[in-house]
Automatic annotation (TrEMBL):
It comes from Blautia segnis. Residues 132-231 form the OmpR/PhoB-type domain. Keywords: Cytoplasm, DNA-binding, Phosphoprotein, Transcription, Transcription regulation, Two-component regulatory system. It comes from the Bacteria. InterPro entries: CheY-like_superfamily, OmpR/PhoB-type_DNA-bd, Sig_transdc_resp-reg_receiver, WalR-like, WH-like_DNA-bd_sf. It is found in: Cytoplasm. This is Stage 0 sporulation protein A homolog. May play the central regulatory role in sporulation. It may be an element of the effector pathway responsible for the activation of sporulation genes in response to nutritional stress. Spo0A may act in concert with spo0H (a sigma factor) to control the expression of some genes that are critical to the sporulation process. Residues 132-231 bind DNA.
Length: 237
């Protein structure tokens, strides 16, 4: 896998240096910015593959940086912030962030999130269309063209909503999807009733995917925020 060009947006020098040292040690190319204005300039000038973004910047909120970048690019943005409140995470994810790491973080966690993002980026750049592909993730297989899903080569009997949820999560494998985003994609709206319905459907979907008590887990719940499909493998063309 080719090493990505990563833009590090962090005004705290020790943390910025830690991230840069980590990237250099693992042969990643990098750019650095200390504020939001510089981040937007670097992103528009150099088109990095991934942005690592702090929310508390001296000149503007990191969420504003996300919104500005999203007006012209879908480059993956991983937020790294000391803000651990669900509301902050939801705001950043709904603005267009792909992932959220809370400080303090481990170097291993940061590298793992970067690798997941790279894999998703590689899939996107191949130009493969999920509707004509077979998605595989561990023992899970989804044949988009046939509209069928299988676990250990045994067909899953899913309701239409469960299947739509499974496809939505698989097309965003490794990415946290908020309740708002999911309900808007599935039902075209978001209300308290929709979120309550989502929880019910997700619970039934998980039971069908994770039948064995100590078996493979596919869906990770981010309490108060949303859901993520855990990346266990890759697309098969």
């Amino acid at each position: 896998m080719n090493k990505a060009l990563i833009l590090v947006v962090e005004d705290d020098r020790p943390i910025r240096n830690l991230i840069i040292t980590t990237l250099k040690t693992h042969d990643y190319k990098y750019l650095a910015a200390e504020n939001g204005s510089s981040a937007i300039l670097e992103a528009s000038s150099h088109h990095p593959d991934i942005v690592l973004l702090d929310l508390g910047l001296p000149d503007m909120e990191g969420v504003e940086v996300i919104k500005k970048i999203r007006t012209w690019s879908n480059m993956p943005i991983i937020v790294i912030s000391a803000r651990s409140e669900d509301t902050d995470k939801i705001e950043a994810l709904d603005a267009g962030a792909d992932d959220y790491i809370t400080k303090p973080f481990s170097v291993e966690e940061l590298l793992a999130r970067i690798r997941v993002t790279q894999r998703r980026l590689a899939i996107t750049q191949t130009g493969e269309q999920p509707e004509t592909s077979v998605f595989t993730n561990g023992e899970l297989k989804i044949d988009y063209s046939a509209g069928c899903a299988y676990l250990k080569d045994e067909e899953l009997h899913l309701t239409p909503i469960e299947y739509k949820l499974l496809c939505l999560l698989s097309r965003n494998v490794g990415k946290v999807l908020t309740h708002t985003y999911i309900t808007q994609q599935i039902w075209g709206r978001c209300s308290e009733n929709d979120i309550a319905s989502l929880r019910v459907f997700m619970a039934t979907l998980r039971k069908k995917l994770e039948r064995e008590k100590n078996g493979m887990q596919y869906i990770q719940t981010h309490i108060g925020i949303g859901y993520r499909m855990i990346n266990k493998s890759h697309f098969a063309g």
